[in-house]
Amino acid sequence: MKTLSSSINGGAAVKTVPVTEVDSVCPYCGVGCALTYGVDQAENRILYARGREGAPNASRLCVKGRYGFDYAMHGQRLTRPLIRLEGSYPKGPLSAGVKSSTGAVKAGGIVDYDEVIPHFREAEWDEALEFAAGRLKGIRDTHGGDALAGFGSAKCTNEEAYLFQKLVRTAFGTNNVDHCTRLCHASSVAALLEGIGSAAVTNVVRDVSNADVALLAGCNPTDNHPVAATFIKDAAAGGTKLIVINPRRPKLADYAALYLQIRSGTDVALYNAMMNVIIAEDLIDAEFIANRVAGFEELKAVVAEYTPERAAVITGVPAERIVEAARMYGSAKAALTFWGMGISQSTNGTNNARCLIALTMITGNVGRPGTGLHPLRGQNNVQGASDAGLIPMVYPDYQAVDDPEIQAKFEALWGVKLSPKKGLTVTEIMHEAQEGNIKGMYIMGENPFLSDPDTNKIRTALAALDFLVVQDIFLTETAEFADVILPASSALEKTGTYTNTDRRVQIGRPALHPPGEARQDWELICEIGTRMGYPMHYSGPSEVFDEFAAATDAYATLNYDHLGEFGKWYPCPDPETSEGERIVFDRSFPSGRAKLVPAQALDPDEMPSDDFPLLLNTGRLLEHWHTGVMTRRSEVLHALQPEPFVEIHPTDARNLGVTDGDKVSVTSRRGEIQLQVTVAERSLPGAVFIPMHFREAAANVLTNPAVDPWGKIPEFKVCAVRIARMED
Amino acid sequence: MSAENNTDNNTVTLTIDGKSVTVAQGVTLWEAAREIGIDIPVLCHSPRMRPVGVCRMCVVDIGERVLAAACVRECAEGMTVATGGAEVEGHRRVLSQLLLSDYPDHSRREATTGDDALLELARSQGIVEIPYPEEPAGEGAAADDAAARGEDDSSPVIHVDHQACILCDRCIRACDELQHNDVIGRTGKGYTTRIAFDLDNPMGQSTCVACGECMACCPTGALTDKGLAGIRVERKG
Q1: Is B33 helix (H, G, I), strand (E, B) or coil?
Q2: Which domains does chain A have, with CATH numbers?
Q3: For residue A668, pLDDT beyond 90
Q4: Which residues contact A528 (CB under 8 A, 6 or more apart)?
Q5: Partners of B130 in the beta sheet?
Q6: pLDDT tens profile A250-300
């Protein structure tokens, strides 16, 4: 007879490992899932991750959060400071894959260390920090602070973001500090600050359960905000009607009441036409407009020109579908609007966001359960890094650098004279570097070589810098251009706060020790500042948080004790007893009335032509993170999605004579990449899609660096390309 | 005392193991018991999920002709509930033994995270012997080889051991109702019933997005973390 003991003991030999559990926050996307890591401290390794009952995720996780933590334990982590050898000047790219974006690029997707490491020597920390601080100081003293610039990172903590912008504004003496928000939601931020005086979301993702209608514009949450997507799908199952608008069919379209497949870059015409119908059919909220909105008449005059029939010609969406969407949205008692990079990464990005704001305001869909504006934040801390002031025009909490009163306030706080001049943005800094006007840079945790548009331009810009410090956890493509590389800590090795897409501030706690001699980012920023003559000394991240919070209204009431295990939403007037505000602006906006700014439909900067007949759209995949530095070093994520591809409509594939797996070259006015074809019916004929993550076929070799006039965000989502089949 | 008296405030009052408890209408017996600190054993239910009452481990005596599954039965005014007793415990014991009769000797959950709920439950019931054959009686494909339910190693993250599956449907609800990925369902009839991915594809070739929610929700050795193979986790403190 079978006995239970055999059930317990049978099977292969196992090793018993003592495990300590650490409550933390996922390092990947803006959803900010609360999770617990199971840590084998003796081996300094994470064994597993499981979801915690946090406000953003209710114990749910996605593939990256649950299985993608192993990047931090990868053998290629930088463990000692590196200084470029004299024989490796003049500076330039070092590996074949970074020297040229086409040709013999090794598969595998990470910088070839064997090619690059021999150009550097290991250094002691003291030497590396003296070298870095000394050269930056030299450039500042010779050419002035505006010859320096810094890129912080939305992957780093609020504390690190705050210290980094403080370093650049005080020790560097310039406002040339920016980060990748410029590449993701800068236009949304510009439109929101102009429209309502606040750039944060007005409502949290999970309140979608209270919405009658959710509008999902230019976003793909199942891939980019996977756990948020599960709550949106929950809502749909519970009766919320989803209106999904996207030129490339997202998975959420399967759950939608209405899916509108618009032509890339025609958003303004579509939303103007929806407003045209809503006004014509009196689906507006007249009381809300009378009490809380300014500029309705001007808006009405402009959208009157955009009949559904006219918009149908521009967008490719049949007029009756536009009317249906307008009626569905306009009749909802509560409608919540989500948007993503499809709206923001455009030369019309600010106008696109203005339209969504106006649509929300004329129907009174803000400040109540199930309503609101929710630009889905990409990085785990893009909200926080922006709040902390990693933006060239504003100090922490969006306080203008060119306002003398505010400038005086920060001069008193930081004890030095500050520049009254607005700084340059990411794309402007790269341009000025190429021109020789920016001479020195400090880049913390960003990889502009792959993340910025027009890689061939970035290559010359980075090579032109007199001095570049890169602080990162791996040797990135960008680090190939560095004079000194500082090994830093991953999110899994540090204490610090992150602010998610819902405005929820959560403490991340260290699960691992940094490898080798790698150090905490916040300490390195302070070392550079102190060695440049601006002393920066803190007992730890909690003290930095307190200084940051005191400089803001939004975070003023919060501290590490209040945040505890699960964090709080800001604003949080009473942190002792409350979780903070889920829904804001129920009575008024920070700017008083919402200002409606009408927009005219304009073409994207670059349209298809005879030479470049196809429209290229770029984006992300579920399994990867941005430039792949983390996820391509995760065994599981890499195994799931190992190779770059270009997704082509069956009609175009037929015309080009290509099929699944064929190798093609894709060429724009700026460069060429080679990759294999995936045939899929997700975009319209004439439109192709390439994910941005793969260095061996970097989408940004092709993309257009033209920027939106207000947000200065590049047009990643639309450029003209041609495709040619390559011989085997 | 009558039900009508209580309809105004939408609550019901009942007695569980001699303790009186008042709960909102619609609350299940399992939830009401939990509120007063009585843990009724479950395998198929999780507070994160819609209850389905398939494992029957949570049965309680409410004075009816048959035992009631506490996870799905709503509380009613005046109900008297016994969560233990010889009949209830005997019933659970037989269920545990039946589930264990064809359970694999090696539970990957027991061997890794150590939280195999079926084995934990059996141990708490003092079960040592399984007085049932390992293979079903009678004929048919399943009887040829009980282990023929097989394993599926095709996913890079999750090991599937169909033989350790007790068809509790937690993974199905995790996939379809928590994450809404709609990949997992059931296939087959009777003893050959299994969970299946899409139209019974190997997990690694299905539309699975590897979120791992099924693995996190599985109470047995059926869906386990491949990354922990060979590692027995011993949680400190």
Answers
A1: helix
A2: 4-73 (2.20.25.90), 82-182+390-550 (3.40.50.740), 186-376 (3.40.228.10), 614-725 (2.40.40.20)
A3: yes
A4: A129, A132, A133, A136, A167, A171, A442, A469
A5: A2
A6: 999 999 999 999 999 999 999 999 999 999 999 999 999 999 999 999 999
Domain B10-84 identical in fold to domain B90-228: no
Q: Residue B230: which of A15, A48, A234 has the nearest Cβ?
A: A15
Helices within A16-116 (DSSP H only):
63-67, 96-99, 113-116
- Architecture of the structural domain at B10-84: Roll (3.10)
pLDDT of residue A110: 80
Q: In this structure, are residues A343 and A267 in contact, taking their beta carbons and an 8 Å threshold?
A: yes
Verify whether the Cβ–Cβ distance B235 to A237 is below 8 Å. no
Query: Which residue type occupies A98?
Result: V
Segments of B136-208 assigned E as strands = 151-152, 158-161, 184-187, 194-197
What kind of fold does domain B90-228 have according to CATH? Alpha-Beta Plaits (3.30.70)
| CB contact B126 to A (< 8 Å) | no
Structure tokens at A155: 């992957």
Return d(Cα B133, Cα B167) in angstroms, integer: 19
Are A219 and A340 in contact by the 8 Å Cβ rule? The answer is yes
Residue of A143, A163, A178 whose CA lies nearest to A422: A178
The CA angle B215-B217-B218, to the nearest 5 degrees, is: 65
* Spans of all domains in chain B: 10-84, 90-228
| Residue linked to tokens 């012997």 | B129
Question: How does DSSP classify residue B176?
Answer: I
Q: Do A11 and B119 touch (CB under 8 A)?
A: no
Nearest CA in chain A to B114: A8
